[in-house]
Amino acid sequence: MTAPRISVVFSSFNGAGRRLRQMLDSMLTQNFPFEQWELIAVNNNSSDNTQELLEQYTSRLPMTVINHPRPGKSGAMNAALAKARGALVVFTDDDIEADVTWLSTLAACADAHPDFGVFGGGILPNWEHYPRGNPLLEWIPMGSTFAIADREASGPCDPTKIWGPNTTVRRELLGSNVRFREDIGPLPGGLFAMGEDTEIVSRLSRTGVKTYRCAEAIVHHWIPASSVTEAWVQKRGERLGYGMPALFGEDVPKGVRIAGVPLRTWVESANWAARAALFYPLRSSKKRFWAIWKYYYMRGYRAGIRRYAPAGDRSRQLTQEIAH
């Protein structure tokens, strides 16, 4: 059997009740020949009818369905990678809708830029309700908040600006040992470290792999109305902070630690806690929003240091493993 040019991989946890059907329908409309790509879908411990919905599409799409019962997106994506056969591996999510030219544009972009190993596409917001007049959108970074990449032009790009719903890697660079770190990434319930997509791309970048933006290869990322609130975005900052020591362990402050956390981090945390307490009773404003966001971010960062501080050494170890 001839290997496909592209393997599209994604994981779904209870996606049937959200946007999984819309995602699969968008894959049906791709103008890239079916014989040149495959879709590997992982049912990650779903308790709804996600498995049944995926199986409904196996006769309509070049799709393989994997059942991965252990919770955790990163482990599920690694299970998909073990099955991927395409020269290009495209990572995406179960709540995107892809433009009809998505895969054909990615293939053409990779062919035109053989010196680049990782490609990030355009990611536009697909609002449940467009937040017209909501000042929050002017205050926040849309990339790290909603994985949106709608303003970047095509060309070489920063590896930390390639987001999970539209990431392509040449499979030869992944080999058999470059996989997602399963100690970071989405888990059902509780606090988890964000950034599993950034981590694997950054790890490749540190070995000399170059990254490129294919802005014309577009997916639309679902943003529910419940996510477009100050409280939701502020608490998401805690997850972002929790993952930072895992991604950038070398940036954790050196020196004296108290209860496992550097003194400098405690000082910065106290500063933002005081600001948050000062602004909290006041009416909504950009300063109030960021003071509270930073309070949550630092709370997550402290917890992340306790768990991932040794991950700075682990990060270098993983880079060395790729190089060898």
Characterization of the model:
The chain has helices at 20-28, 50-56, 73-81, 102-112, 136-139, 142-146, 171-174, 196-205, 230-247, 263-279, 286-308, 311-323; strands at 6-12, 37-43, 63-67, 88-91, 96-98, 118-127, 155-156, 167-170, 211-223, 257-258, 261-262. It has 324 residues and is of the alpha/beta class. β10 (257-258) and β11 form a beta hairpin. The protein is globular and about 60 Å long. The model is unreliable at 311-324 (pLDDT under 50).
Question: What's the topology here?
Answer:
Blueprint: E1 6-12, H1 20-28, E2 37-43, H2 50-56, E3 63-67, H3 73-81, E4 88-91, E5 96-98, H4 102-112, E6 118-127, H5 136-139, H6 142-146, E7 155-156, E8 167-170, H7 171-174, H8 196-205, E9 211-223, H9 230-247, E10 257-258, E11 261-262, H10 263-279, H11 286-308, H12 311-323
Helix pairs in contact: 9-11, 10-11
Secondary-structure element string: EHEHEHEEHEHHEEHHEHEEHHH
Shape, per Cα inertia axes: globular
- Would you identify the regions where 5 or more consecutive residues have pLDDT less than 50? 311-324
What gap, in angstroms, lies between the N and C termini? Answer: 31 Å
Helix content: 40-55%
Quickly count the helices: 12
Mean pLDDT: 93
Measured by DSSP, the beta-strand proportion falls in 15-25%
Number of strands: 11
Question: What summary fits the major beta sheet?
Answer: 9 strands, mixed
Computed CA radius of gyration, to the nearest angstrom:
20 Å
Protein structure class: alpha/beta
Give me some keywords for this one.
324 residues; alpha/beta; 9-stranded mixed β-sheet; two-stranded antiparallel sheet; 11 strands; globular
